[in-house]
Amino acid sequence: MERARSGILQAAAELIGEHGVPGITMVGVARRAGVAKATVYNHVRDRDELLTLVLLDQWATVQRLCNEQPREQRLATAAAWASDSIVLAGLRRHSPEVLVAVASAALSDPQVTEVVRGWIPDQRDPEAALRWLTSYLLVPR
């Protein structure tokens, strides 16, 4: 069950990277993941839920990567990840309006701010760090 879910999320991430949000179809995800279309629907209700799960999976990935680093390297790790993410690259190319919505949601979410607080040296402004990091979502360096 977990393997199918992981494959579905990976397939959706690849399709977003290649085609943006319009590239996500349940049939396309099923083919790419090597599962039946019904299996995709066993894990998600619709394309919006699948996109949400992919984005949450991306967020979990960047948190894991950052938490593996010393605190003073975490923000730079997150910025490098944002610049290299195939999902974010696909959204930048094909679905920038979705990426702007994701960035806006991140900026206004207190839980995201608290995570970023753990990525910066003490006495720094986590909201400023989050704004800086969000700029990497929109314009990779």
Characterization of this structure:
With 141 residues, the chain is mainly α. 79% of the residues lie in helices and 0% in strands. It contains 9 helices and no strands. The longest helix is centred in the middle third of the chain and has 21 residues, at 47-67. It starts with a helix and ends with a helix.
List keywords for this structure.
141 residues, mainly alpha, elongated
Order of helices and strands: HHHHHHHHH
Largest sheet: none
Give the overall form.
elongated
Q: Care to count the β-strands?
A: 0
- How far apart are the first and last residues' alpha carbons, in Å? 37 Å
Low-pLDDT regions: none
What is Rg?
16 Å
Sheet-strand content, in percent, reads under 5%
Mean pLDDT over all positions: 94
Helix content: over 70%
Number of alpha- plus pi-helical segments? 9
Structural class: mainly alpha
Describe the secondary-structure layout.
Elements: H1 2-19, H2 26-33, H3 37-43, H4 47-67, H5 71-84, H6 86-94, H7 96-108, H8 110-117, H9 126-138
Helix pairs in contact: 1-2, 1-4, 1-6, 2-3, 4-5, 5-9, 6-7, 7-9, 8-9
Summarize the structure.
The protein is mainly alpha-helical and 141 residues long.
